[in-house]
Design a protein that fits this description.
This protein is an all-alpha fold. The chain contains 11 helices and no strands. Helix 4 runs antiparallel to helix 5, helix 5 runs parallel beside helix 8 and helix 8 runs antiparallel to helix 11. The longest helix is centred in the middle third of the chain and has 29 residues. It is flat and about 65 Å long.
């Protein structure tokens, strides 16, 4: 007698957009963008395609929605009574950590910059710049400088982490290898590189990121105190 093909149990609870986005985020974190397919998602949620399409238009819409959710939580997690410079620093670090924890987010932000995620970041940065009394005409340059730095460094470090994972080396081994390669360079042509290699093993990406934020904020503070509305001067 023929037996019926085994089928996965169907979902008995109502499916919400939040559940779909959260599940998609978990899949992206575990396996990267290639792991997120609608077929895999239906299996994971024990549902059909129709239930998924009721909440998202397609896979790209789902990926963007997951990105929006990650960024919205990072932007919202700020102390309401903190000083503007402190809030900007915390915002930058929160975004850095969010992209570090969800490496796929950085690529998505640059792929579809019109989505709410990037607008949320820019608005959050701009609010703190206004509180710092940055001149109005300087706001776009200051805002985009901060946003570009935050996302650029965060995405680069996320890419480095992926490359490190694929190399099967741990971080200390990787940095030791880089230091050894730098040591072979001509010290008369690359004196600064030779000096930097001695500190490479203790290099902290997060601390260096914050140093860059502090340098940008120091420049903004100097410009504001000088009373200029043109950061290019």
């Amino acid at each position: 007698m023929a037996t019926k093909a085994h089928r996965a149990p169907r979902r008995t609870q109502a499916l919400s957009r939040d559940v779909i986005v959260q599940t998609a985020t978990e899949m992206l974190d575990a396996g990267g963008e290639d792991a997120l397919t609608l077929k895999a998602l239906t299996v994971r949620l024990a549902t059909g395609y129709g239930a998924i399409y009721h909440h998202v238009a397609n896979r790209n819409d789902l990926l963007a929605a997951a990105t929006d959710d990650v960024i919205a939580r990072a932007v919202a997690d700020l102390a309401p009574d903190a000083e503007p410079a402190q809030s900007l620093r915390a915002l930058a670090l929160g975004l850095y950590d969010a992209i570090d924890a969800h490496p796929w987010v950085g690529a998505q932000l640059t792929r579809e910059p019109w989505r709410p995620a990037l607008a949320d970041i820019y608005e959050a940065v701009s609010r703190q710049l206004l509180a710092l009394q940055v001149p109005e005409r300087a706001m776009p340059d200051c805002g985009f400088t901060l946003v570009t730095y935050i996302l650029g460094v965060a995405e680069q470090n996320a890419a480095n982490a992926r490359a490190l994972a694929n190399s099967k080396m741990d971080r200390s081994e990787f940095l030791a290898d880089v230091a050894a390669q730098w040591a072979r360079l001509d010290p008369t042509r690359y004196p600064s590189v030779h000096k930097a290699r001695t500190q490479l093993r203790e290099h902290d990406d997060r601390a260096q990121f914050l140093t860059g934020i502090d340098l940008i904020l120091a420049g903004i503070e100097t410009m504001t105190r000088a009373g200029t509305d043109n950061p290019a001067r």
